[in-house]
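Database export, one record per block. Field names are fixed; values are copied verbatim from the stored entry.
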Amino acid sequence: MAHTRKDQRDLTAAERRRFVAAVLELKRAGRYDEFVRTHIAYYKADGDGGLRTAHMAPSFLPWHRQYLLDFERALREVDPAVTVPYWDWTRDRSPAGQPWGEDFLGGNGRRGDLQVTTGPFAYGTGNWTVTVGVTEDRFLTRDFGRPKDPIELPTRDELAWATGETVYDVEPWNSTSPGGFRNRLEGWAPGRGNTRWRNHNRVHRWVGGLMLGGASVNDPVFWLHHAFVDLLWSRWQARNPGAGYLPAVPPPVGSAQHGRVVARDEPMPPWDVTPAQLADHRHLYRYG
């Protein structure tokens, strides 16, 4: 039976406690850090050689859908009542509001070293030590809004720039694709400074700290952010039922993207699952 992922603002106090407890148990058991390692391993940019699956590629959305499913299944092995909530960053935009409560994700990092000192994922509690990362910091860091280079969370109008697209993706199937829902939702755009970051990318930049880069999974808000990205894809699919995943077939020999992106019926490493198999999630979970 399909379970329901809820808006984090609709969680009861008990649901917040159970989600936090399940995440902390995965961390204690060493399983959480395996998810961090996976994301780092598959965080490859356009300029890197070889196959790209997690980012800057058409499989960005189905890859993270499977990744979220794996994480959610791990949580539910700890507590079958837990699901991954989502954070609608077009609505909950205050650094002092949800989801940053003491009983949930904790708040912003302090000045100086950006260390998060509040909530259950603060280093001081002894329950959340960063052991897999791209820096030497052992504590969770955040820098809401990046005061030294201010950036705002995406607005509904900015999100409409992506959701108004009627095709899934377009050539050259990377961060320079001039249109398509995937690239615009992932948030790559031309320009300089903060204008380059849209939607998904801008949220990572706004949270800052460890949410920047491949080790972003060290911040549990990663899962709430990507659950909302997945919800946006689900809504877009419902509005565009004839617009399937692209490319439908692999880029041909001679193409710059040959062997570098996943086509509709090709498996996405590290799993033996294809984008086509992940197109419909309704038999697994729904959004409340």
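Remark 1: The chain has a mean pLDDT of 96.
Remark 2: The CA atoms of residues 100 and 107 lie 5 Å apart.
End of record.
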